[in-house]
Specification:
- The protein is an alpha+beta fold and 86 residues long.
- Helices cover 44% and strands 12% of the residues.
- It is built from 4 helices and 2 strands.
- Strands 1-2 form a two-stranded antiparallel sheet.
- The longest helix has 13 residues.
- It is rod-shaped.
Length: 86
């Protein structure tokens, strides 16, 4: 008789299940299930550059800051030659 009472107590009744279900549903509302925020590409600043074929490209400013400068002041003739070669 005592064994049957212990087995019945181990089973979850409807009254015991509802509080578990309610607490499980309220956890996301308490911010326990928040995902970390990821920096999106929309926040980055872009610079518009000209490619040798004449098309326009958007490049992140952070990439331009890390880039190596080959010639700081370029003449107009060398720019036109660079555009024609490509």
């Amino acid at each position: 008789m005592e064994n049957s009472n212990k087995e019945e107590k181990k089973q979850i009744s409807r009254r015991g299940f509802l509080p578990l279900l309610g607490s499980g549903l309220i956890l996301p509302l308490l911010s326990f299930g928040k995902t970390p925020t990821i920096k999106s590409d929309e926040d980055d600043e872009y610079q518009i550059l000209l490619k040798p074929d004449g098309s326009v490209v958007k490049v992140k400013k952070s990439v331009l800051d890390k880039a190596k400068v080959v010639e700081k002041s370029i003449s107009n003739k060398s720019l036109l030659g660079w555009l024609k070669n490509k």
